[in-house]
Amino acid sequence: MISILLDSSDKDLAVGVAKDNVVIDSIQYEAWQRQSEMMITELEKILKRNNITKDDITNVICGIGPGSYTGVRISLTIAKVMAMALNIPLFTVSSLRILKDDDKPSICVINARSGRSYVGVYEKDKTILEDQIMKNDALKDYIAKHQDYVVCGDVTYLGIEGKRVNLLTQMISLLPYLKEEKNSLGVTPVYMKD
User: Angle 172-102-111 (CA atoms, 0-180°, nearest 5)?
Assistant: First the structure.
């Protein structure tokens, strides 16, 4: 089983390939506002490097948001086209959930700009706090009240350190909990902004 893994919902561009639910190759780096220029090229590199053809690919897994308006659309559009063109299953996952720590309850955060953050709180396969937008002051209060939780994501804009994980390793580890999208072309990104 060959899975293609895609996420560009925040500053990072993340592209990977997993074989039998183990990531065998990945590319993840900051590409803020350049994901649209680079994602296809990076995907082609990784497929070529691993001698993977379109016929080898069995599914695609994609971060669906919340996050950057353009970033979320880039990876999801590529994933939808692949699923449709190759007639393979598409699985989507919260872009916050893939930030979580495996061992501790995790407050997962993405900058929503304008003094706000996208926040989801998870522990193992359970959701403690559904994905939502929170004002940064309220988020800081939440973090202060939950000091036994780990804060995950790029939270330097809040003036604190956050744990960074390999998005693609997290993504493939969540596959058993994900549902296949029945209508891949009808999947819409999760934006959460008004």
Answer: 85
What is the rounded end-to-end Cα distance, in angstroms, of the chain? 39
Q: How far are the Cα atoms of 38, 72, 121 from residue 97, in angstroms, in the given order?
A: 24, 14, 8
Q: What is the Cα–Cα distance from 77 to 80, expressed in whole angstroms? A: 5
**Strand runs labelled E in 2-89:** 2-7, 12-19, 22-30, 57-63
Alpha helices, DSSP H only, in 58-159? 69-86, 136-145
Instruction: Give the pLDDT score at 69.
Output: 84
Task: Give pLDDT, residue 30.
Answer: 78
The string of pLDDT tens digits covering residues 167-179 is 899 999 999 999 8
pLDDT tens digits, one per residue of 95-145: 999 999 999 999 999 999 999 999 999 998 899 999 999 999 999 999 999
Rounded distance between C-alpha atoms, residue 120 and residue 112, angstroms = 13
DSSP designation for 179: P
- Tell me the CA distances in angstroms from 42 to 28, 49, 70, 72, 160, one per residue in order: 10, 10, 18, 17, 31
Q: Cα–Cα distance between 52 and 143 in angstroms, integer?
A: 43
